[in-house]
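so my prof wants the structure for this chain in the tokens format not the other one, which i didnt know existed until like an hour ago. anyway here's the sequence
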Amino acid sequence: MDVLPVEEIEDDLARMDRGIRQLKVQYDQFFAGALPCEPTELRRQLDRLFRRYANAPLQKYQHRYHLATLTARYNSFQELWGRSVRALEEGERPAPAVAGRAGMRRDNVLAACKVTGTKVEAAGLKKLYEKFMEARRKSGVDGEVPFAAFGRKIAGQARQLQSQAECDDVELRVIVENKKVLLKARPIR
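here's what i got, hopefully its the right format
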């Protein structure tokens, strides 16, 4: 194998270092839910570079040491990413919320009900109550809330918001936010 020019080796080592940092950032974004899929293209490019230098005759000890350090760091990250992806696929680790991807933050609204003046949609209120109780059970919260007490609480919240926001219509929503079940009201103008 021919001896590679020193400038080319140094450029490739710098490219490997930058690539590892970029790949780490992209994998962090993927595991946080900001990227929809793994950064395979950048990983493929880095794999190609590392394979090129796997058995290359490097003349300077500095280059050999730098390559060995980069290779060790890249291998440890590959193991970490592989374990994390496997945990995601096997369900051991919860997948990032789809609503949080691509910079969009959206609440997970399970049900909604509209309150106009002092009137509450009966069917909407019943559905709101059922979704609220179902979400509480799924999140592990024990205890039943009686429907009558739920209705009084809703009416009180709606009246309070209507007077504060000086509006006639209020939307009530059952939301799951950070694994907590919440009942939120917002004015409709």
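also thought this was worth mentioning. Confidence is low (pLDDT under 50) at residues 98-106.
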